[in-house]
């Protein structure tokens, strides 16, 4: 869709915007840290795509700062094919308390270094797919899932934590979790 649009840096999506069923290559050859899409539809579905910009995501949902909750209702978050998350994902979805599901299975996390409080305060989450996260470069995971009290399962079994230096309170307040596999976690740092 936007492949080869090398100077494009902002896409304003209007009513009815959805990502195509086959969106592969949507942002091929766009500049690094270039095009970012964050669109909240009438049903409360937040679609993110391109090279995600935290401030743009927050603006789409009416979130003023790191400690505030969205002023618009967000029922779910979906990453489009080809989505690239930023190096600093700290508090990216923090305080999305009414959000029930977040699907980041199509997001590239290879360059992310900070995931601290990424999902902090997401107390309404019942579904969170982070199973395909590439966490090889992440150094901070403190409070990553703090307060995700409605989650009953969470697959972090493939997380590479060899560079992580701070996991303080990573699962604090996750009172709904019935089991958690952290057997591959490297906590030596």
Could you explain how this protein is built, in words?
- It is a single chain.
- The protein is low in regular secondary structure.
- It is 4% helix and 11% strand.
- Strands 1-2-3-4-5 form a five-stranded mixed sheet.
- The longest helix has 8 residues.
- The protein is globular, with a radius of gyration of 16 Å.
- The relative contact order is 0.12.
- The model has no long low-confidence stretch (mean pLDDT 88).
Terminal residue distance: 43 Å
| Helix/strand class | little secondary structure
**How large is the radius of gyration?**
16 Å
User: Would you tell me the overall average pLDDT?
Assistant: 88
What is the element string, with H for helices and E for strands? EEHEEE
Q: Tell me roughly what share of residues is in helical segments.
A: under 10%
Query: Which blocks of ≥5 consecutive residues have pLDDT under 50?
Result: none
How would you sum up the major sheet? 5 strands, mixed
Number of DSSP helical runs: 1
